Amino acid sequence: MLGISEELLCFLGIAKEHARESNHTYVDKLKRIQTLVIEIQTGLLKYKDNTEQNITHVHIKEIEDWIKAYEKELPPPENFIIPGGGITAANLHLSRAACRKAERYIIPFVRRSEIPQPVQVYLNRLSDFLLILSRLAAKLDKQNEHIYVPTDVGKKNNKKNT
């Protein structure tokens, strides 16, 4: 988990620096998230010794509140979003992918009670937040979001599945 969370920290750092250079208002939230990812790392090391995990429902609520606030600034997504929309948005998409990777990695550990469930929930909500921030970054940078449009093959496959 430590290697995967280091990857997430690095991607968040790149996204944060691009957001800072563009004077985006959420830079402080990215720094807070990086701090909490480090808290997750240290908490996991302590949790192995049966001490309490650092991530709680308070942290989950905080990120859910951020999601609600920023969603109000965006139109509903039309379909799947293709990563891009400017350098800041693209780096937030990378951060989201690393976050999803970390979440998938810890699922078996959560099921075996080796990692507390709030960590998984936090990573899940974090990936949603990073998607919202990527969309917001594209908007703030006056970049277009690239929306997935099925090819003819994709349309045929979608019809078979319905």
Automatic annotation (TrEMBL):
InterPro entries referenced in this protein's UniProt entry, alphabetically: CblAdoTrfase-like (IPR016030), CblAdoTrfase-like_sf (IPR036451), PduO-typ (IPR029499)
A GO MF term: ATP binding
Domain Cobalamin adenosyltransferase-like: 2-136
Keywords from the named record: ATP-binding, Nucleotide-binding, Transferase
PANTHER family: CORRINOID ADENOSYLTRANSFERASE, CORRINOID ADENOSYLTRANSFERASE MMAB
Family according to the record: Belongs to the Cob(I)alamin adenosyltransferase family.
Protein name per UniProt: Cobalamin adenosyltransferase
Annotated organism of origin: Popillia japonica (Japanese beetle)
Highest classification ranks of the organism: Eukaryota, Metazoa, Ecdysozoa, Arthropoda, Hexapoda
